[in-house]
Amino acid sequence: MKKRILALVTAAALAVGTLSTGALAVSADEAAATADTIVIGRAYDSDNLDPVQMTGNYNIWIINLMLEGLVQTSDDGKTIEPLLATDWEISEDEKTYTFNLKPDVKFSDGTPVTGEDWVFSFERAISLPDSYWGFVVENVESVEAPDDSTFIVHLKEASPATLANLAMFTCGVQKKAYYDEVGDEGYMDGFIGTGPYVLTEWNKGESMLFTANPYYHIEGKPATPTLEMRVIADDESRVMQLQSGDIDAAINLSMDSVYQLESDDRVVAMASEGCETRFVAINTTNEYLSNPKVREALYMATDPMTITAVATYGYGIPSSTFLPMTSAYVDPEAVVNTADIEAAKALLEEAGYSEGDISLRLLITSGKSFEESVATLLKEQWAQIGVEVEIDANERTTYTDKLYGMDFDCVVDYWTDDTTDPYEFMNYICIFDLCSGFDTLYVVPGIEDLNAQANIEMDDEKRHEIYNEIQRKVAAEHIYIPICTLPYTYATGTSVTGFVQTPLGNLRLADMVKTVE
Asked: What is the pTM of this model?
């Protein structure tokens, strides 16, 4: 279905002649040397493009093509750098941030970005407490725009995570007049932002078409006029279409696909540093799993080293905690578990269970070789202590429904960071109401108060100590079984250059080009 936003973009393009004029102008020789369109295959379609009310990487990574904020994370995912703010000043008490805005920035329809648009974007994010991302702005007391070149953020408390949070998509600037026209429901299908690309067509379940923003504020970018995001759910099909040249790049690849493609001279396959942490989350309302000795027995029976080696083809990093192992805040005292089958059996006996007494349903996404491999290995490992496992494999929509509905005993769960700071994931883990104890329905005593301290602790060494204590308290309850941290995996044809996926997952495609013969 084509969305009405297409008409606005088309009109904007006509206002400057064509999409290849202005900042996108290239010489005839250059135009002949690069393709007008690059096709990227991905595993899932988006389902909600509202920056405040959506969730999931399949939405986030798309939104980041169209939306920009005051600051952004660097390409290496480690620092914060200016984007639509040229610079900023922080008050002595570190509770007021004054941003100087980049001049003459326009939305993709050609209208100027105003202070009113900035205030609207933040106030909408603040005013929707049921948003998945409400915690990002919960420390914001108020915002103001004295003029169109200055934006001020007033905080309730000084926080070390402020700039990292402001780099989140939920703080990106959007056109107020467009929201006023379409409302919340229309916003699910797209918004008007300042990013390098504009969504111009959405055939739901099949593809998205993006065209270059003719008013983009960085001269000469984006380099490719059109991007097509094509949904190819099956991993093997994405690989075959890349090898045959039907698509130019593929994301969300399985580890075995990357392993396979590394020897193919038609493509460039990458398993780059990522922050996707994989763990088993345990539904503690289950008859058996409500018993802490049973949970600990499952943990003791699990061998994450073997699972990581087999399921990730050696690309993953075995995990010692629920945080990504690439995080600077991993507890240095945490160690990767070494399976102890006899100790695990003894724990089950103490809990009053014999071999064959316990049967569990393990939820995974079907068609994903990594999850299938993890589930198979867990089934084998837990069978050694007499626990039977039924692997409950479902396509993405059903999997998501079951996950959010807590319709599982255990689930191969995951998290990916969106910021350079642990604030985001730690809030989800520690604040029960945000995510039902992050898929466990369990309240770990004391961690919410500790997390509140960490959120405002400006001394980084002390903050590390608080996060270490949180990790130890969570580990003692055995509500998660850490497995591994995964890289981000993608591949492109050899003619494609400039494809960037940061360690935080952000797709940076403004410099991407495809050379043609």
From this structure: 0.87
